[in-house]
């Protein structure tokens, strides 16, 4: 998809030095869903709600592991851009950062609906950071976000589908 590669080239060409380090830190925070585990713990701790944290962990693991499998199956090579971070050793499609971010934001917003906008805003920033640092194409990120949202919904709705009642 030529437009996908051209858009990634354009995004990387728009880098602005004062944003490089903050976006690099954001992309590292999103690695394997670490940011979301911290947010989940921060929301679960005052409520003493271990179920909330366990659900975030489940969504993070499900999104991370499933995207790793999909990356191997699809086998799309990473962009050939100057990187702000180390070159990942996995394939590009779909974005694991986007998937874990949207899976966890979906789960967390089901427990804290008032935080839905900031949670999905943060998920979007983590996902877009992957474009900025040069390791994904836009379709990788879009597919990862969609996949992560679906995984998050499955994790949230799974117990209900089995007839278990949520508190």
Summarize the structure.
The chain has 167 residues and is an all-alpha fold.
How would you describe what is shown here?
The chain has about 170 residues and is mainly alpha-helical. The protein has seven helices and no strands. The chain has helices at about 1-15, 15-30, 35-45, 50-75, 95-110, 115-130, 140-160. The chain is globular and about 45 Å long. It starts with a helix and ends in a 6-residue tail after the last helix.
Q: Low-confidence stretches at least 5 residues in length (pLDDT < 50)?
A: none
**Could you state the order of secondary-structure elements as H and E?**
HHHHHHH
Helix content: over 70%
Secondary structure category: mainly alpha
The chain-level mean pLDDT equals 91
**CA gyration radius, whole angstroms:** 16 Å
Distance N to C terminus = 46 Å
**Overall strand count:** 0
Largest sheet: none
The number of helical runs is 7
Strand portion, in percent? under 5%
Shape field: globular
Key phrases:
167 residues; mainly alpha; 7 helices
Write the layout of secondary structure elements.
Blueprint: H1 2-13, H2 17-29, H3 34-47, H4 50-74, H5 96-111, H6 116-132, H7 138-161
Helix pairs in contact: 2-6, 3-4, 3-5, 4-5, 4-7, 5-6, 5-7, 6-7
């Amino acid at each position: 998809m030529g437009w996908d590669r051209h858009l990634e080239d354009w995004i990387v060409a728009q880098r602005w030095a004062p944003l490089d380090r903050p976006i690099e830190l954001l992309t590292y925070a999103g690695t394997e869903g670490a940011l979301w585990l911290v947010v989940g713990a921060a929301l679960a701790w005052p409520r003493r709600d271990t179920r909330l944290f366990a659900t975030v962990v489940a969504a993070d693991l499900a999104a991370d592991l499933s995207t790793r499998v999909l990356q191997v199956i699809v086998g799309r090579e990473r962009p050939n851009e100057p990187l702000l971070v180390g070159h990942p050793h996995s394939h590009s499609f779909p974005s694991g950062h986007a998937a874990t971010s949207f899976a966890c934001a979906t789960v967390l917003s089901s427990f804290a609906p008032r935080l839905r906008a900031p949670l999905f805003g943060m998920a979007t920033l983590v996902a877009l950071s992957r474009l900025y640092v040069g390791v994904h194409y836009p379709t990788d990120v879009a597919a990862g976000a969609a996949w992560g949202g679906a995984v998050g919904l499955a994790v949230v709705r799974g117990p209900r589908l089995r007839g278990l009642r949520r508190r």
